[in-house]
Amino acid sequence: MKNKYPRILRSKSLNLQTLLYDATYPGFLSVVFEAYRLKLSAAEVTIVPEDRYAEQLFSTPLQIDTEQERHDRIEAGLRKAGKGLPDFIRRVFHSEHERREGILYHLIRRIFSEGATVTDDLTDDHILLCKQLNNKMGREIHRMHAFVRFQQTPDNLYAALVNPDFNVLPFLAEHFEARYPAQNWLIYDTKRHYGLHYDEATERTSYITFAEQQHGRLRQLSESMLADVETDYQQLWKSYFEAVDIPERRNLKLHLQHVPRRYWKYLIEK
Fold it and tell me: What share of the chain is helix, strand, coil (3-state, %, to 5)?
């Protein structure tokens, strides 16, 4: 029977193997599975998204296919080690940090060999960085919950454009499904060119992308793309905001702590 997972011949002098994957999270866990099968330590492997790989003279990369079985086995192992670990690993991956693959493979190997408590070992620079990235992701997700502003379109779709620092859309669905279960809505990431679309009829959320020529139009919802009632409500909200504002009590420093300036472009009152 032919071996499903072929052996890799590595350079004895360099002792380093480059593994390529499709840049998705299931793809990354597939690479982790394969690297484990090959008994590669974190120092012996470089994990690179295929679209970022640059050819090297003394390195022959191996393309690792994304397989659900591989993904599921690694995720099951993480869940067995600690209930919150799969979500922790997933958040760090979606931070898009340039070193995410290396530090996560290092962390996962330590988790499987030493247990979940290694995530508290802040003397390990890789784990410290993972904790910092997880905290940043948590703050960005919380801010998206607070600052996403939907605008009604003529076809009764409530659309919101966002441009988060990190790839947080995969972590927003549950919150907004619970908050707006009786509306059709779209949250679109203008930086990463994809969105979350909730269908009220099916009560399901799916990922959605648009053709490249539409990206420019989606950077801003113009008045022509909004329902008449939406522009009326926006004007009403601006009038209310101006009416309750007390110039003498403004505290810009405190305001910026709670509402960073980079979120202002999504707020109607700004």
Answer: 50, 15, 35
Residue spans per domain, the chain: 17-140, 148-266
Asked if residue 160 lies in contact with residue 142, where contact means CB atoms within 8 angstroms, the answer is: no
- For residue 98, the tally of other CB atoms under 10 A from its CB is 8
- State the average pLDDT over residues 92-99: 98
Q: Which residues of 177-213 are buried (b: 16+ CB within 10 A; e: fewer)?
A: eeeeeeebbbbbbbeeeebbbbeeeeeebeeeeeeee
Closest CA to 15 of 51, 42, 52, 36: 42
What pLDDT, on the 0 to 100 scale, is given for residue 149? 87
- Record the tokens describing residue 48, joined without a space: 């690179």
Residue pair 199/214 in contact (Cβ under 8 Å)? The answer is no
Q: How far apart are CA 106 and CA 232, in angstroms?
A: 54
Reported pTM: 0.80
Please say whether the dihedral angle defined by the alpha carbons of residues 263, 265, 266 and 270, taken in this order, is positive or negative. positive
Q: How many CA atoms lie within 13 A of 2 on its CB side?
A: 2
- Judging by beta carbons within 10 Å of its beta carbon (0-12, 13-18, 19+), is residue 258 exposed, middle or buried? exposed
Residue that has been written with the tokens 């590595």 in this structure = 10
Length of the chain: 270
**Dihedral sign, Cα of residue 113, residue 118, residue 124, residue 126:** positive
Q: Are 78 and 89 in contact (CB under 8 A)?
A: yes
pLDDT digits (tens, 9 = 90+) for 47-73: 999 988 877 656 688 999 999 999 999
Token pair 């707006």 is found at 180
Contacts of 148 (CB under 8 A, 6+ apart): 160, 162, 172, 176, 187, 266
